[in-house]
Amino acid sequence: MTSPQPTSDTHTTDTRPAPTPPRTSREVRLVSVPDTLPRPENLSVVETATPVPGAGEVLLRNRFFHVFPALRTVMGDGVPDAPLTPLRPGDTLFGGAIGEVVSAPAGSTLRPGDLVSHAQGWREYAVVAASECAPLDDVLPDPIAHLSQGSTAYGALTDAAGVRPGDTVFVSGAAGSLGSMAGQLARLLGAGRVVGSTSTRAKADRLVADLGYDAVLLRGPEQDPIADQLAKAAPDGIDVFFDNVGGEQLRAAVAAARPGARLVLVGALSSQLSPDRPSPHAPVEIDSFAVILRRLRIQGFSGLDTTPSVRAEWAEKFAGWLRTGDITFPHVRIQGIENAPRALYDAAAGKHLGTVVVAL
To answer: pTM surpassing 0.85?
Structure first.
């Protein structure tokens, strides 16, 4: 398998109508459930018959799809109560995608060449119910920006955490698809100081230079404990914790929280993407007495909690901020579906900064 060549770009995507689809196309399937992080050999790029749409369905040629590391969580038995379907050997992977309409059912408002967002990524062609396709307009400078996880970060910081001017905000997993947006958003929402955490000095330097962070903590066996680093980076404590990770970093945030602080949990990557023993469950011991005495608010939040009104508000603000340069969409673009299995492994291992996207 060739190594993927990541690039970052912001050019406008060509939206000319797609040609007649081929008889066969490729998709990425799970071959075996990984014992650790998903390696390329756990996946296979297979050639299969190009799907044929039925009544009420749209045939799409995928242009981009999001490489979402937490797919590891649903490989095998999945997670009870989770909204994602378990992936078993032989299943095709799925995830957010931008597709170009090849054909649409009679009476549909969709036309060949239109771009839509949908959830059937990891394949070159997809058949999707017309009701599950969200047409894209030209509000965003580049359609690839529709794969940003910014709406979730925005909802968590506004609806759940209620970031206020002057707040000190701590973002764990600051270099991921959510964290790379959260730092910028916290700054735009008026935070006085933004602290993040990541795994390498190179990513930390970029987070400070380009993505709104004042200081970044480094995790790892050779680093000082996160709690000690956080005490130095935010000596007066924190008001908001945007948590992608859990574990040690959640404990540190509770210890550093000011009275009335808001802790919003959006991920549990310390367990889900542990290279030693990945688990969908993320037990962590915190000081519950500190939670009581300081009247801390701890709330879980997922993309499903972002209300339609907040999504609409986010889309308008995101478009404006992109055009003025007040925000960027950090992403790495991997060319070709044949490089998708390696891209998932690299993303899960924390190689990249921002959202990882496969371009077809």
So the answer is: yes
If residue 150 lies in a helix (H) or strand (E), which one and from where to where? Answer: helix 150-155
User: Are 140 and 314 within 8 A, CB to CB?
Assistant: no
pLDDT digits 0-9 by tens, 187-215: 999 999 999 999 999 999 999 999 999 99
Cβ distance 168 to 213 under 8 Å? no
For the stretch 92-121, pLDDT in tens is 999 999 999 999 999 999 999 999 999 999
DSSP for 224-257, please give it. PPHHHHHHHHSTT-EEEEEESS-HHHHHHHHHHE
Task: Provide φ and ψ at 117, rounded to 5°.
Answer: -100, 150
Q: State both tokens at 88.
A: 């078993």
Domains, in order of start, for the chain: 6-148+330-359 (3.90.180.10), 150-305 (3.40.50.720)
CA 186 to chain centre: 17
CA gyration radius, the chain:
21
- What are the Cα distances from residue 117, in Å, to 68, 335, 359? 15, 19, 14
- CB count within 10 Å of CB 49 equals 10
Distances (CA, A) of 104 to 52, 54, 109: 11, 10, 8
E-strand ranges in 122-180 read 125-129, 134-135, 168-171
Residue type present at position 235: P
Tokens 């291992």, residue located: 349
99 contacts 128 by C-beta, under 8 angstroms: yes
Residue by residue, DSSP assigns 41-83 as GGEEEEEEEPP---TTEEEEEEEEEEE-GGGGGGBSS--TT-S
Count Cβ neighbours within 10 Å for each residue of 247-256 and write b for 16 or more, e otherwise: bbbbbbbbbb
